Predict the 3D structure of the following.
Amino acid sequence: MSTFAVGDEDFLLDGRPVRLLSGALHYFRVHEDQWGHRLGMLRAMGLTCVETYVPWNLYEPERGRYGDVAALGRFLDAVAAAGMWAIVRPGPYICAEWENGGLPHWLTGRLGRRVRTDDAEYLADVERWFRRLLPQVVERQIDRGGPVIMVQVENEYGSYGSDQGYLRKVADLLVECGVGVPLFTSDGPEDHMLTGGSVPGVLATANFGSEAREAFAVLRRHQPSGPLMCMEFWCGWFDHWGTEHSVRDAADAAATLREILECGASVNVYMAHGGTNFAGWAGANRAGELHEGELRPTVTSYDYDAPVDEAGLPTEKYWLFREVLAEFADGPLPEVPEPPRRIAGPADASLAEWAPLAEVLDMLGDEESETPLPPTFEELGVDRGLVRYRLEIPGPRQPYPLSVTGLRDRAVVYVDGVRAGVLTSEDAVLAEPVAGPAVVELWVESLGRVNYGPRQAEQKGITGGVRHERQYVHGVRARGLRLDAFEAGAVAKVPLRPVAGDTGPGLYRAVVDVSGPGDAALSLPGGTRGFVWVNGFCLGRYWSTGPQESLFVPGPVLREGGNEVWVLELEGGAGSVRLG
């Protein structure tokens, strides 16, 4: 058994000074069968520690109904097997470019901006969750023979609020749940962030991507003693749909890494390996310096321009980082693992069967509700997916503008069964006026809940109402189609038919023959926007707007011979499937 502590100047392992060389690897963004390889890549780069978040909403999709919470414990065991330490950041809020910053939709839907405050109802749910989750961490702390050396209190709270009572209660709750290793906070190196996000008696760390000496000088003004650590060294960045791919020069990133270490500080490379936002779990941001502008949804890939890319391969940045880290290592670095196997060759298939979106909704959708005003996704219990809102314009009446207030995020509109346009702004007006009587359908898709900034906890769907001229149209029938509904037994009941002639939005099926399974990239020539499953595993969202052009397919998902592919196309028609 060992001990890990925060000293006056250094971290202390069994009383001896130690520097933490850590890298971020989110186990929930990597197929479990590939954890060992990715950890081996980090260890060979020169890292001795791994940091991970824990997304609450992944494991409690409905209040009191839990998923595979034990996955965290299995990952920490894999970290120990790799001979590394672990830093755990359990939230309850994590940001991480993850849907809703990791907070469950049922929680923010009920409490709104009361989350992340000293609110009794919110904290009761946090305590219930922590008491379910944290035994896995406590059992694997370093003083019990495990790899866990530190645990974070909340996450970048100084970028959001100033409720010191809330932070204190989260810290105390962690201790009450048995956490005995050092606690820490992490915030940007700004005075208002460090004053808002720090907790007296808890180690403060800083997050930044450049100018390390200046950042540590700010941290020292707020924390005169204790070890210095950059808890998030941003060596790359993430992408939003419809923007340019983000890249950081490898030599520039390596120079900043060296600067951090020359300051005598510890570091956590964010991300060391980014992975993938499988199953539609990517979050979103609001544009502008104050994060109040247009919605910018995050792409499915979380490659992050990291040293280990999305497919687990070393990049130029990897080799430069390895050179730097080798100078600060206690001994020779391990050999770099062999690359994961790729499929033997390209494979193509046509999307030969399909069912229209309305029929998919009939088979897989939730019960339809009828209310005077449009219910939000949260009121309907929809976390990821889409909702069809149906309403009737009475008549006779002349054509008037049809408008939607409080629209989040994207609505494809049909009038009497004919596509009439796409609405994307919060207060949107259909291009052509609508005469009555008419039946209007709005298929609204969530593009990811905001994960950072003051707009976090906002609801999805139609949060205001639908108006014809200035008059609200009341009497709305709404029905949700959740991504979780797409499981093999349910999909088998959808009445697919051969694709013939022009088709439109709906569920498409293909069988792709693979010889020699391994990792692959899946593209959809002719596809516009939607989601893809391979053998029942949801790869995530695709969108022709870019910059992401293909989806990563983990090798363990594929099998020799026929592989079943489902494509939920939400705007266009049939295309084809290509694996390469």
Q: What stands out?
A: The chain has a mean pLDDT of 98.
